[in-house]
């Protein structure tokens, strides 16, 4: 066991874990942050996606020790964000199990590529699996946000 | 209130987008031990011995369990040991169970258990299983306890046979001027819900059993633990929170039993068992496979006179729900067509494959792949338009089903209407093939669907409504929120009936079999129908009670009162009223006198007038109503490389009144997506020893973002008269015609009959090879 401090959702959390523990295991079983889900435990499904320094990361493929001195954001740290609103309005989830992973993936996508084209969207989102929807609703939710981004920037330019 | 049809946002929406929605494995496990399953590396082998001494030495191990002492299980035939005993019958079968303090310790110990096997010959398919010299999967088939209406054939690998004998085949074949016969085959595959199954079990000192499980059937888990283990049914409490996708796979009772025996082995302490993906696919039940032969005969003008169908379902090692699946396929064996003369044998056959759970559509996407592919072959032989052939034979009110149920304007949807709608949607008149140049073509394939739901003839659903002091209502139903949004739809039904603000309806999402009224199982597209009727009944109960109390205060007959808009008021003088909030907990007069009390509404609905099927002819009424639809797929096909892209997918379905537009579209599109994945790419890949080579999501690949086509969904509305606001089942239907439509498009595009799934380019290439195709031809 090692004891370390992780920065999660803007808080420093002291936590003891085995050196071989994955970030997903520590988030769920030690910190009670169960929004990140286990789906495959080998990076295939994306249900465990969180943001590490703003980058979408599969927390089952990362050791908790690799998260030291990094800024970790989980779905629990995302409050009232446009992605969450878009998912609700566009019915972009059903069972909801893959949803935190998708939302964290999209959160990172929008921050990095606010004007993402179809190729970039696919590049990001094809790493997660949703088994309930046909993806059309998720596509609409993402594109509504990109549209919002465009309108925001257009508005900004006019202001200037 | 105008809530019917509105895309009301889901009641659990914010929980699901904030990570606060809890699934079974999300409940803290600090007080529980952890179990790990040891599985068989063979598909069929004798267990010679199990060595556990090394495993016992692992720190933290509390118990190691092998298959000796437990009763046989199974819903229709008790053929399955909780843990394999004497022999294993499929790759991945549970052989032993380790319980330890942590998941890591349990895993370490499980790896140290040594099982000695003696391999046996493997039964690879239902067709092979019926060969006279085939090994038997169950030597003791005749000795198993079973339900009355399942018909195993001891001494063979037949777990169940359902016969349909309608009309006269002799007459049918005499009238037939054109006949076609096709054979079909596909292996088992998987549901691949994103949440792997998870169960926890705890047994208290007084014998109470607490189970939490990711299931579509907590009430059935309760019933079966009572039946198998003799625990008093009232002492068993099963809880199910949100379920992360199910699609039928979580309707079988399996992991709960393992968690229960694990807890028994450690003196009742709480034990959690969370499937890893590989075991979720192999050890827990999967999606059924099928070998089928379909023979159709029609007159030259396209009227089908005879249908002869043989379905050999690959039930795998245990019959569990496979027996029932094969029966359901017999019920709707012809596809949605009015045919006078029908012969069908539908068998559930034992093989050494993982065994089958229900799968969205309950054997219908499977049988429809065979029937609808044959319809295209028949259309071609007749030289007839493919949709025209389907239109001519489309099932209509006045026709009878294969089990001889007479259809009417309420119990069947409008299939001709769906076909007409589909023609417009896909611009059928422009033709089925368009040449895009570059060796690519765009091709359309079509199919039609139908389904009734053959669940237990006495299946029921109950609803309780309790009031809060502000006049808002808690809606408590046994329907599991597996992702379908049914509980939001129930809230809509309630709010519409009580003419109230839907924000005043609070839906309890979690189900607890002790405090929630039973909903048989959340399966078969029955949630909205059965629970919807229960909500209507509970709403009537509430109205009656509100009026009763209010009639004293308002000094008027209850019959003169109306309920709605948060009030109870005189019909002809609405100004004379009481607020519901002042009556919901009893009314208090100004002097302190009180009458009434908290209003608790109750409602119930049981299926009615369903009958068992006759053993020899299948005659009977096993389901209440048939939803129908017409579907299409448009592909872009590369003639040289035999690769393709699904460009668009279409559904024109009659699900009766649409209660929540966006949720209904989501159900249909999601089901279509799953059907395209099943038809196009998903299968277990077996080697010659019956091992599954691809039990992971990187080798077993569901559709991913960007691989999805454009979806087009249109609703034809034929209300079902005895359903809440006329809604029909909708959860499964989008899936059912997709494999056939894809097969029809690809067969046309490639110019070769494609009768096996999945439809990967390699499969197309193999079929082309058989016909002497070579690249030199291009």
Automatic annotation (TrEMBL), chain A:
Determine if Membrane is one of this entry's keywords: no
Keywords recorded for this protein, A-Z: 2Fe-2S, Iron, Iron-sulfur, Metal-binding, Oxidoreductase
Pfam families of this UniProt entry?
Fer2, Fer2_2
Asked whether the keyword Iron is assigned, the reply is yes
Source organism superkingdom: Bacteria
Chain ranges of the 2Fe-2S ferredoxin-type domain: 2-78
Q: Which residues form a coiled coil?
A: none
- Supply the InterPro entries for this chain: 2Fe-2S-bd, 2Fe-2S-bd_dom_sf, 2Fe-2S_ferredoxin-like_sf, 2Fe-2S_ferredoxin-type, 2Fe2S_fd_BS, Beta-grasp_dom_sf, Diverse_Oxidoreductases
PANTHER family associated with the record: OXIDOREDUCTASE WITH IRON-SULFUR SUBUNIT (PTHR44379), XANTHINE DEHYDROGENASE SUBUNIT E-RELATED (PTHR44379:SF7)
Q: What is this protein called?
A: (2Fe-2S)-binding protein
Q: Which organism is it from?
A: Fictibacillus fluitans
Q: What is the lineage of its organism?
A: Bacteria, Bacillati, Bacillota, Bacilli, Bacillales
Automatic annotation (TrEMBL), chain B:
Boundaries of every Aldehyde oxidase/xanthine dehydrogenase a/b hammerhead domain copy? 18-121
Query: What UniProt keywords apply to this chain's record, in alphabetical order?
Result: Molybdenum, Oxidoreductase
Pfam families in UniProt: Ald_Xan_dh_C, MoCoBD_1, MoCoBD_2
Indicate whether Plastid appears among the record's keywords: no
User: What InterPro entries does the record point to?
Assistant: Ald_Oxase/Xan_DH_a/b, Ald_Oxase/Xan_DH_a/b_sf, Ald_Oxase/xanthine_DH-like, AldOxase/xan_DH_MoCoBD1, AldOxase/xan_DH_MoCoBD2, AldOxase/xan_DH_Mopterin-bd_sf
Keyword Electron transport (UniProt): no
Q: Which PANTHER family match?
A: ALDEHYDE OXIDASE 1-RELATED, XANTHINE DEHYDROGENASE
Name of this chain's protein? Xanthine dehydrogenase family protein molybdopterin-binding subunit
What lineage is on file?
Bacteria, Bacillati, Bacillota, Bacilli, Bacillales
């Amino acid at each position: 066991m090692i004891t370390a401090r992780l920065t999660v959702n803007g808080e420093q959390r002291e936590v003891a874990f085995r050196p071989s523990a994955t970030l997903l295991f520590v988030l769920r079983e030690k910190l009670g942050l169960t929004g990140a889900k286990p789906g495959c435990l080998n990076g295939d499904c994306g249900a465990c996606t969180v943001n590490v320094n703003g980058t979408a990361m599969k927390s089952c493929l990362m050791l908790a020790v690799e998260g030291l001195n990094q800024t970790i954001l989980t779905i629990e740290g995302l409050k009232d964000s446009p992605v969450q609103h878009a998912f609700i309005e566009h019915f972009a989830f059903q069972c909801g199990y893959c949803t935190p992973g998708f939302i964290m993936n999209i959160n990172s996508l929008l921050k990095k590529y606010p004007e993402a084209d179809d190729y970039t969207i696919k590049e990001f989102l094809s790493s997660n699996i949703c088994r309930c929807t046909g993806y059309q609703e998720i596509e609409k939710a993402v594109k509504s946000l990109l549209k919002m981004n465009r309108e925001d920037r257009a508005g900004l330019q006019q202001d200037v | 209130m105008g809530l019917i049809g509105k895309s009301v946002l889901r009641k659990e929406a914010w929980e699901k987008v904030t990570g606060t929605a809890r699934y079974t494995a999300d409940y803290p496990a600090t007080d529980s031990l952890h179990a790990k399953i040891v599985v068989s590396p063979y598909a069929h082998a004798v267990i010679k011995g199990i060595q556990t001494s090394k495993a016992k030495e692992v720190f933290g191990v509390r118990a190691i369990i092998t298959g000796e002492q437990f009763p046989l299980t199974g819903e229709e035939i008790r053929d399955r040991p909780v843990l394999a005993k004497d022999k294993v019958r499929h790759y991945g079968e549970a052989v032993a169970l380790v319980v330890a303090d942590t998941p890591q310790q349990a895993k370490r110990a499980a790896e140290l258990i040594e099982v000695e096997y003696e391999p046996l010959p493997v039964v690879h398919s239902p067709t092979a299983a019926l060969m006279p010299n085939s090994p038997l999967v169950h030597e003791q088939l005749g000795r198993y306890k079973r339900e009355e209406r399942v018909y195993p054939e001891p001494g063979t690998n037949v777990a169940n046979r359902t016969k349909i004998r309608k009309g006269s085949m002799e007459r049918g074949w005499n009238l037939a001027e054109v006949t076609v016969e096709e054979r079909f085959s596909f292996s088992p595959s998987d549901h691949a819900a994103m949440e792997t199954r998870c169960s926890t079990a705890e047994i208290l000192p007084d014998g109470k059993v607490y189970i939490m499980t990711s299931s579509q059937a907590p009430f059935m888990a309760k019933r079966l633990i009572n039946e198998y283990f003799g625990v008093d049914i009232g002492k068993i409490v099963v809880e199910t929170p949100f379920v992360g996708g199910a699609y039928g796979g979580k309707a079988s009772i399996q992991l709960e039993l393992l968690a229960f025996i694990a807890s028994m082995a450690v003196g009742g302490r709480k034990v959690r068992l969370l499937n890893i993906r590989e075991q979720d696919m192999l050890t827990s039940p999967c999606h059924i496979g099928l070998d089928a032969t379909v023979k159709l005969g029609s007159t030259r003008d396209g009227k089908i006179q005879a249908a002869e169908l043989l379905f050999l379902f690959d039930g795998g090692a245990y019959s569990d729900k496979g027996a029932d699946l094969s029966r359901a396929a017999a019920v709707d064996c012809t596809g949605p067509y009015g045919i006078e003369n029908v012969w069908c044998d539908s068998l559930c056959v034992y093989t050494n494959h993982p065994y089958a759970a229900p799968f969205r559509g309950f054997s219908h996407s499977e049988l429809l792949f065979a029937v609808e592919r044959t319809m295209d072959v028949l259309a071609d032989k007749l030289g007839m338009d493919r949709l025209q052939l389907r239109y001519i034979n489309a099932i209509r009110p006045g026709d009878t089903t294969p089990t001889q149920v007479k259809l009417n304007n309420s119990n069947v949807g409008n299939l001709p209407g769906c076909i007409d709608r589909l023609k417009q949607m896909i611009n059928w008149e422009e033709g089925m093939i368009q040449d895009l140049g570059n060796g690519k073509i765009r091709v359309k394939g079509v199919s039609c669907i139908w389904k009734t739901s053959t669940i237990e003839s006495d299946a029921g659903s109950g609803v309780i409504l309790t009031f809060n002091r502000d006049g808002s209502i808690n809606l408590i139903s046994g329907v599991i929120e597996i992702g379908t949004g049914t509980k939001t739809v129930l809230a809509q039904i309630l709010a519409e009936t009580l003419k109230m603000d839907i924000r005043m309806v609070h839906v309890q999402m979690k189900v607890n079999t002790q405090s929630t009224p039973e909903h048989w199982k959340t399966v078969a597209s029955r949630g909205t129908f059965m629970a919807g009727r229960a909500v209507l009944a509970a709403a009537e109960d509430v109205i009656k009670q509100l009026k009763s109390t209010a009639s004293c205060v308002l000094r008027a007959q209850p019959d003169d009162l109306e309920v709605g808009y948060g009030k109870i008021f005189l019909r002809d003088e609405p100004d004379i009223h009481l607020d519901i909030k002042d009556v919901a907990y009893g009314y208090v007069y100004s002097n302190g006198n009180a009458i009434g009390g908290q209003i608790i509404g109750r409602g119930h609905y049981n299926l009615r007038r369903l009958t068992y099927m006759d053993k020899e002819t299948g005659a009977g009424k096993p389901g209440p109503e048939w939803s129908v639809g017409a579907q299409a797929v448009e592909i872009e096909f590369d003639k040289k490389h035999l690769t393709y892209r699904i460009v668009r997918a279409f559904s024109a379905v009659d699900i009766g009144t649409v209660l929540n537009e966006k949720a209904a579209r989501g159900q249909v599109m999601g089901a279509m997506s799953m059907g395209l994945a099943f038809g196009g790419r998903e299968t277990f890949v077996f080697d010659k020893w019956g091992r599954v080579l691809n039990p992971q999501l990187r080798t077993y690949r569901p559709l991913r973002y960007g691989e999805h086509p454009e979806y087009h969904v249109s609703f034809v509305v034929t209300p079902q008269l005895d359903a809440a606001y006329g809604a029909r089942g909708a959860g499964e239907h989008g899936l059912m015609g997709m494999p056939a439509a894809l097969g029809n498009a690809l067969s046309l595009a490639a110019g070769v009959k494609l009768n096996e799934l999945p439809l990967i380019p390699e499969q197309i290439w193999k079929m082309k090879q058989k016909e002497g195709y070579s690249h030199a031809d291009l």
